[in-house]
Amino acid sequence: MNAPEASLRARQDLYAAMAPHHLTPLWEVLHALVPPRPATPCVPAHWRYGEVRPFLMRSGEVITAEEAVRRVLILENPALRGQSAVTQSLYAGLQLILPGEVAPAHRHTQSALRFIVEGSGAYTAVDGERTTMRPGDFIITPSWTWHDHGGSDDGPVVWLDGLDIPTIRFFDAGFAENATARSQQVERAEGTSFARYGHNMAPVRHDAPFGATSPIFSYPYARSREALDHLERHAPVDPWDGVKLRYVNPLTGGWPMPTMATFMQRLPAGFAGKPWRQTDGAVYSVVEGHGRIAIDAGERQWSFELAPRDHVVVPSWHTARLSSDAGCVLFSYSDRPVHQALAIHREERLS
Ligand code: 1HN
User: Fold this and answer.
1) Domain boundaries, the chain
2) Which of 208, 275, 311, 348 is the most buried (most CB within 10 A)?
3) CATH of domain 42-349
4) How many angstroms separate the alpha carbon of residue 95 from the centre of ligand 1?
5) Which atom of ligand 1 is nearest to the CA of 103?
């Protein structure tokens, strides 16, 4: 600002005088309020499973699932420590349940997704229906549904929890309640929701039991993998994404959850993807195989070597590129449905 000394002093006097009245001059902050492009405080980060797993297992020695309510290590964005956030809008954590344990029933307005990372045979129950967890399954806990989890006889089970916690906090719209019983009464046979809604069919007089959220609790990995395999062999591979599909709510064709989009993709062997950027920051979970993600924020670059069960966050408007020598499978989630609802979603595919 090129103003003479006297008028600068007059301005400072004015600001000081108005401050006790909770007033701030817009012209001092305008440029930061409407940046020319997203200026996220978030940074890319990589959690190697080989480094995280020992801490998870040690957690299993020092606290029970019941005591902890949820025994989870939060994946915190290094630039947002203390905020329980992996991006400004999303939460990510890795949850451990051991044989014989119960994570007690409760419900909250925050929506949750589970992506099974290690182990089999634990269950999660949603509004009276249980689903058995297997690696690579994508499981939904809709907003305000009762849910509890139970351990597997076969050993530890670990899954990625993705929640819209920072989004709900932003809107000051969070409610929660504990159930009186530790675990829910089973009211429907396992597989009922998948039989009703998971076979490209729907009940004739169907309702949407969870409103804007998919009526399918679990999208089994075997089905997702089969689709990706077929497409890799028999259809063109996308130069940016490899073979990538989005999960859908079968009643609407839209996203399975109102606040979070979920995807699974296969990078074929020898894939060297082109770079892209998008406004929705995303969290990746490596399902199988090895690969690499290179991220470019102009002044800074990152390159992460991906191994099975690793997790990565790519913040908003960071340019990213995926590649794999021997092939790999990635699950990811982002807040894209919110961007689209607000008509602010942007994506650029670069060359
Ligand atoms: C929650 O209810 C679960 O149900 C996991 O497994 C993580 C993080 C914050 C708040 C509630 C669960 C959570 C959570």
Assistant:
1) 42-349
2) 311
3) 2.60.120.10
4) 9
5) 6
